[in-house]
Amino acid sequence: MKLRKLLVWYRVRNFKSKQNLMKSIYSLILFSIYLVACNEATVDTKAEGEKLMQLSRDWSKAASQDSIDKVLSYWADDAVVMLPGQETIKGKQAIREIVEGSKNIPGFKISWEPLSASVSKSGDMAYLIEENQISFQDSTGKTITEYNEAVTVWRKEPDGSWKNVVDMYNAKPAPK
User: Fold this and answer.
1) Chain segment 112-138, per-residue pLDDT in tens
2) Residues near 45 by Cβ (< 8 Å), separated by ≥ 6?
3) pLDDT (tens digit, 9 = 90+) per residue, 44-78?
4) Residue 138 belongs to some domain of the structure
5) CA 51 to chain centre
6) Which of 114, 142, 163, 175 could staple 56 via S-S, CB 3.0–4.6 A?
7) By residue range, what is the domain housing residue 26?
8) Are residues 7 and 50 in the same domain?
9) Residues 135, 111: Cα–Cα separation, whole Å
């Protein structure tokens, strides 16, 4: 009789443990789904694209002024710049040398306007299609203006700011 009571007790206990185990597993699964759903931030890619286009306009405005540090602040430390007919420029220090050198070119001016923006679904990378104009004086003092089309690649930094990581352009025909 004692053995029978012991077996019944064991089965009941074991059954309750299995029920508790299943409840725990289901709870864990539901909690995991909840966590994943809560952690997936919805990125408004259109708003981020507009923010980047304005950032690019602000950068263009800064480039027309004399603050080299302000101009450099838009590039990431590991940025790459690819100019037509030149070796790839890597890193902020090398970019600084190019920006400082441009200030010594008579009549040098640069400006650009973003045309479109594409932001990744995750909101951490983007690219802009842009047009730029570069003016300078030739050896006779005549102003030369180049018209270019550009692609700039941007990365969202851990602090939430956007930094340019690739800057590349090539020539296009002058407007008619």
Assistant:
1) 999 999 999 999 999 999 999 999 999
2) 118, 119, 120, 121, 123
3) 999 999 999 999 999 999 998 878 999 999 999 99
4) yes
5) 11
6) 114
7) 1-40
8) no
9) 9
